[in-house]
Amino acid sequence: MIFDSVMGLFSLDMGIDLGTCNTLVCVRGEGIVLNEPSVVAVKRGTNKVLQNGNAVGVVAKEMLGKTPGSITAIRPMKDGVIADFDITEAMLRYFVRKAHHRRSMFKFRPRVVIAIPSGITAVEKRAVLNSAERAGARRVYLVDEPMACGIGAGLPITEPTASLIVDIGGGTTEVAIISLADIAVCESMRMAGDDMDEAIAAHMRRTYNLLIGEQTAEKIKVQIGSASPLEQELTMEVRGRDMISGLPRKTIISSEEVREALREPVGAIIDAVTRTLEKAEPELSADLVDNGITIAGGGALLRGMDTVLANATGLDVRVADDPLTCVARGTAVYLENIDEWKKSMESDEDEF
Fold first, then answer.
1. Is the pTM of this model over 0.85?
2. Average pLDDT value for the chain
3. The pLDDT of residue 348
4. Consecutive H or E run containing 7
5. Tag placement on the chain: N or C end, fewer CB within 10 Å?
6. Domain 2-36+80-148+326-349, CATH 3.40.1080.10 — does that match?
7. Any idea of the CA torsion for 283, 154, 176, 286, to the nearest 10 degrees?
8. CATH number of 193-261
9. Domain boundaries along the sequence of the chain
10. Cβ burial, residue 219 (10 Å; 0-12/13-18/19+)
């Protein structure tokens, strides 16, 4: 352990939010050093990454839905877990190398803290560990996403008081009540931002006979999507392929119909929060009357998400500062205090 700590002085240890949509890398003392889409472009039928292994992240996302027959752009993470082991390893290797090479003085392989959904299985945890080790990590520690998110959001998670965090990511929604540096009650649900995009795409097919890609669906969600009525409703021009004629076409949609399309995924998230509250001990519930709910992740930026949660629960709801980076920043803090957290992390690793 002493040798590992000494090596830590000569390595660029990092925390990673390995997300379904985006991967963020945070370095101790520097903050976020990398924030790129979790996308890899490969030669079709192989696991060979294009452009000498550099067709990863932003470069690969630009290819989504636009690749020729010989190339495919892959999102190797599905619902917050690894769907393609080899491609995830290649993606992690690229991100770790890109972050590590920023500082030539660091010669040893880094220690890495990775945030994982609280509901994943032991097999899925092992896949994350193996991918990170094969990607170049010297030692890998896993931390539950809601815990990392709570740390990154600045919640008093080590104190004997309840903190409720709702992390709405791309593949999963994590709802957890944290007290005394541990999760008291949690629910991990594979319904999140990607499902909102799919609901919008389904609405366009059903209502307008218009096929749109995932990037267009995401753009609609960001630009005019909402969970509650807006003071001034919005409209947007959408382009896609007509399902009947097969020709390119455009149409105008409103924020009201997008909100209706998002009703099901938003409702599922609200239900997960209320179920978690129902399972809480009375004293924890009493704390939450004062402490309220903190929401983070990309879904926290959906207009009116805080309002519908407040209406459904009767609690105060606040959006965390910089909600997109909460988990990554939490992993970096976790890494800074690794000696204090080591026992709990090693007990998780003993399962393997």
1. yes
2. 88
3. 47
4. helix 2-8
5. N
6. no
7. 20
8. 3.90.640.10
9. 2-36+80-148+326-349, 39-74, 156-191+264-323, 193-261
10. middle
